[in-house]
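Incident log, structure service

09:12 report received: a user says their structure output differs between two submissions of the same chain.
09:20 pulled the input from the user's history:
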Amino acid sequence: MLPFFYEVQNPNINNKKRGNIMKFNLFDKSNYFRGLLIVIRKNKTVTESASRTVKRIAAVLDFNQDFVDVSLKNLLVNEYIVEEPPKFSDCLIAEIFIKDAINLALSDGILSLLQIQWLMNTAQKNNLSKQWVFVEFEDFINSYISNLEMPFEIQKRKYKVVN
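09:34 re-ran on a clean worker, output below:
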């Protein structure tokens, strides 16, 4: 293994299958995290659900938890975060990033046009089609809806029908 690469193993893939370990160089790792922060910042607010999502992904990428906490705390005022869409070294990393970014963008129930535009620009910079991004949004939303088991608001309340 090269010293400047991080291996990220997907626990959902059998170890005997080819491609179970992706190699991220330091630049990819940094861009991945920075990109997630930008997705949050495009909403102009840092919600608890978005913070939780980023922390989970940052843990997979082996980022220091204190660094992540400070980054999230200062996100909206940090003028040094370059909002240029990242260019990843591998198209597969870009695809996975965009899927995670979609998950993050929708995690707080607030999806802004700025987030969509930025993800489209990221896809374009990584030679991914805008149509592919829309399909990923649609797939995520459909998957979320089909797995949604939360009760409706009316189910939480006592009521009676009055004639």
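09:41 both user submissions now match this output. Likely a transient worker issue. Closing.
09:42 reviewer note: The beta strands are 5-9, 21-25. Residues 5-147 form a domain with the TerB-like fold (CATH 1.10.3680).
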